[in-house]
Amino acid sequence: MVNNNAFDLAERLRVTIQDTMKKENGLEVTCSFGVAKYFASNNLSDTYLEKVDHALYQAKEAGKNCVKLY
Prior knowledge:
Helices cover 53% and strands 9% of the residues. The chain starts with a helix and ends with a strand. The chain has one domain (5-69). It has helices at 5-25, 46-61, and strands at residues 33-35, 67-69. Strands 1-2 form a two-stranded parallel ribbon. The protein is mostly helical. Strand 1 (33-35), helix 2 (46-61) and strand 2 form a beta-alpha-beta unit.
């Protein structure tokens, strides 16, 4: 089972940014996040960064303002 701590944090941050900007400035500001599972036994490799990047592009293709997990 995937640990969803990073996913949950990204989702809370996304909602907070969206809600705060609407309330304080009347602006519509949204953000998207890509999340991938990282194994401490691995080095921070290009493959891992590619997974995060892929998840981010999935979020943008899904209409933006969302979080996607690789």
